[in-house]
Each structure stands twice: as structure tokens, then as C-alpha cells.
Amino acid sequence: MRRTILLVEDETNIRHLMRRxxxxxxxxxxxxxxxxxxxxxxxxxxxxxxxxxxxxxxxxGVELCRLIKLTDKTSGIxxxxxxxxxxxxxxxxxxxxxxxxxxSKETDLRVLQARIEALLKARLRQSEATRREVASVxxxxxSQSVTTLAHYINNSVMAIHATAGVIDPTKPDQAExxxxxxxxxARKILVVLRAxxxxxxxxxxxxTVYVGHETMFDLEAELARLSAAMAKPGGDTSGTxxxxx
Length: 245
Known about the structure:
two-stranded antiparallel sheet; Rossmann fold; 12% strand; alpha/beta
């Protein structure tokens, strides 16, 4: 798959020549004549790199860069600002815009190519690091969910096993007692599952250390809330605010 670049330049001849050069290098290129159209294309195509001029109509490169960097969805896109201004002015403009790099339009194309490749490689490394971090968090969440579920299921199974070991199933009143225990523990497990689902959707999950230094979710408050809801006629048993039917 070809890497994607958005080129934002108001001078038509320069934009067309630059686009042809980038396509010759093997990039897929989108182009815009001003920052306003450039911002629309950023949101539409999510390019891997944005190259923009500073002085343009409608919206200049400074404002475009600010929008990119201040928007969560696009903040990771590297921005290379190029201009025909003096070197000092270029650096000041790039710094103000929050650009990742800035070059003069008169820069040797070999230098520009090297800078583009460096920015794309850095973006790839950052993306891989982010994916590894997300995967690590998911593994940790899964581990804590399994530990939490195992803890509560173990308690319910032990309660059922202990009750079954001391009753006489041939006596109706004792058989009913075992039935009540089984039903109660099944409801507890159901509440735990719903509480875990609800907590897994939250950003800040409180945890506690379990036996053997294992970490599980601290969902006692959520269990109490759901248990109270289930105890009410027509109460919320879904964990989503909907009443049971």
C-alpha cells in the first residue's frame, strides 16, 4: 500500500509540479489550494503526512497546522511546513504552527525527500508503539477480568458445594434450600458479569490485589448497586439502566 501525503499549496504550478514529483517517488498524493480545503481533506483521508505552505487564502498554513495538532483524531499526523520566506521566519512560523519540520521551498529536493522519509518513519514507529501500548492495556484488562470472574465464581461454587454436602436431598425442605442457594449464587454470578461489562466500558477502573498478588477489579460498589436494583420489582438487571421484563 502506498503512503499518503496531503500537499497544500495555493500556487497552482508549484502544487502540480510537487504532486508529480511525490507521485514519482511512489506516494499517493492529495492536494488542496488552501488550508480550508486542506483541513477537509485531512479529515476525509487521514493522510500520513501533511506538507503545507504558510501564506495562503481562506486559511493559512499556521491555522491548518494548529487544527491538525489540536484535534485528537489528527494530532499524530506529522506536518512539514515549507515557505519562500527567510530561514528565520520559516522557523518562527513552523514553531508557531506546531509543525514537525519546516523547510524553504528552495531546499534541494534530495533534502526534502530525506525529511519526508524521516517523518514517515517516525510516524510509523509511533503508531507501532501506540499499538503495543493498546495491546498491553487490553491484555491487562482481560487478565484482571478473568481473575475477578474466577474469584466470584469460585465463591459461588464453594457455597453451592458446601450446601449440597450437608443436606439430605430426599427431604423436600432441604432440597428446596439447595435450590434457593443455587438460584442465589447464579444471580450473583450474573450480577458480576454485568458489573464487569459495565466497568470494562469505563476509563478509570479501580483495582485491588487478590490472593497470590493477582490484581482484579474492585467492583464491590457496582455489585451492591446492581444487587439492590435486582432486588426491586421491575428493577434494573441489565447494568445499562433498563428495567427487566
